[in-house]
Amino acid sequence: MNALVETKNTQVQKISPAGSQIPYTLIGYGIIFAVFGVFGAWSAFAKLDSAVIASGSIAVESNRKKIQHFEGGMVHEILVKENQAVNKGDILFRLNPLQAEAQAQLLQGQIDAAMALEARLLAERQSADKIDFPQELVDRAGRLSTRKNMIDQEQQFKERRGSVAGQIGILNSRIEQLARTIAGLDAVKISTEGQIKSIKEEYEKVSSLADRGYYPVNRLKSMEREIFSLEGRLGQTIADIARNENGIGEAKLQIIQTRQQFQEEVIDGLREVRVQIPELRERHRMAQDIVDRLVIRAPLSGVVQNLQVHTVGGVVRAGDPLAELVPINDSLHLEVRINPVDINHVGIGSKAEVRFPGFKSRTLPLILGEVKSVSPDRITDPATNEPYYLGIVEVKDADIPEEYRGSLTAGMPADLFIATGERTVADYLLSPFTDVARKSLREL
């Protein structure tokens, strides 16, 4: 009985493992199918960013700036050293100002002299009592040469005014003298006319008596001669009056001509000096510009490199480079070589992730940039004969960690991942097969 029971138990044990294996197998298959199903669904719907991988290097937007001087000159001061950081407007060098300043001062003196002359001529044209110098000239009256010019013109103003007044005074005196002469001649004329009238009246009374023999004929003839003499004197007096009146007219005309000639000289002088002043100002502006440029300043913030001037007193020729200035605080630009195969996926405005192999990727945060331009045609590298498209990627200062800004220099290599859009995982996995199939169908 016990043996029978044991036999049955053994059979049960043998049957049990076979029966229990079926559900475990189904569970295993279920897990496998579930994993593949989830992966398939995820690969079909999950989207990943796609990117074009390219290599490039850092370039600065404004590149190196050569520090040059247009005219050249003698070095007076050197205020910078190699690799020194400078700010925009900082003084880098000073050239000897002696010759340039002397030329500028000479021209300024000529301008002041011309302005003083113009002020004097204006006063003469307006018949003013004194010269009204412009405020610009008055402000520079502290300079010896300027003050001397003003004093000279004031003296000339008085002398010329006195000279004209003297000439006119002489002519006026002549007019007065002629007028007095005319007055005397008028008195003689009146007296002579009275005498002639009186004698003629007497002659008319006695002429009839002389005809009848009651008055001596010789006496009558004497009266006639006296009348003729008085009439001749009267004519001479009238002629003298006319001559003196003409003299007065001529003197008055000379006064007008003297004043007119003086004004013409003034106008001609004004016309000439008003041509000279702008020319002198322009020449002075150029001379002062040379003086100002003797102080050579940094055109932008940057680092001084390739310093060429080391000796105070050395001569710099016109246009010779004094140093180079590598800009800082510019937008960082990267020159990127794009494979012609990927050019359809890259355009202006495309976003890019920038990584610098020279830094540890674990410590360097993500740096983002933007494609600013792409060359219109492909370029061939003359060294490797490999074609590529040149792209420019801009990285703003705000996107660069502050602790790395000073370490990023022109020429440093960079790896770029230029975003081209989104693709599903399935697309990534199946694209090699679909590409092969597409090519095969195209060949058929």
Keywords, separated by commas or semicolons:
single chain, 444 residues, alpha+beta, 6-stranded antiparallel β-barrel, 4-stranded antiparallel beta sheet, rod-shaped
Secondary-structure map:
Elements: H1 2-45, E1 47-60, E2 65-68, E3 73-78, E4 85-86, E5 91-95, H2 98-125, H3 135-139, H4 144-212, H5 217-292, E6 295-297, E7 302-305, E8 315-316, E9 321-327, E10 332-338, E11 351-355, E12 367-374, E13 379-380, E14 387-395, H6 402-405, E15 413-424, H7 425-443
Antiparallel strand pairs: 1-10, 1-15, 2-9, 3-5, 3-8, 4-7, 5-6, 7-9, 10-14, 11-12, 11-15, 12-14, 13-14
Helix pairs in contact: 2-4, 2-5, 4-5
Task: Write a short abstract of this structure.
By secondary structure, this protein is of the alpha+beta class. The chain is built from seven helices and 15 strands. A hairpin with a 6-residue loop joins β13 (379-380) and β14 (387-395).
